[in-house]
Amino acid sequence: MIRHIxxxxxxxxxxxxxxxxxxxxxxxxxxxxxxxxxxxxxxxxEGNYDAALISTFDSMEDLEAYxxxxxxxxxxxxxxxxxVDRVAVDAIV
Length: 93
Fold this sequence. Notes:
The chain is an alpha+beta fold. The chain has helices spanning 15-26, 60-68, 70-82; strands spanning 2-10, 37-42, 51-57, 83-92. The chain contains three helices and four strands. The protein starts with a strand and ends with a strand.
């Protein structure tokens, strides 16, 4: 299995779009079949990354299929327009 962990920092003043993005990301669970588990976390402490995604896939091929799925691409494009930084880790678990 593959654990895909992503964290983001968002631009100030984008709270409405951040909420749209994170809600949209959560909405992909149960819709994109390759996405086996999904947890979206919002940070409550200032000075760190603002949100994180912890998700699980059966394989790297499934992760790549998820990334290319048009529903994910739409949500991802919103994120790209409001983020200032992104880090990710893909690990075998």
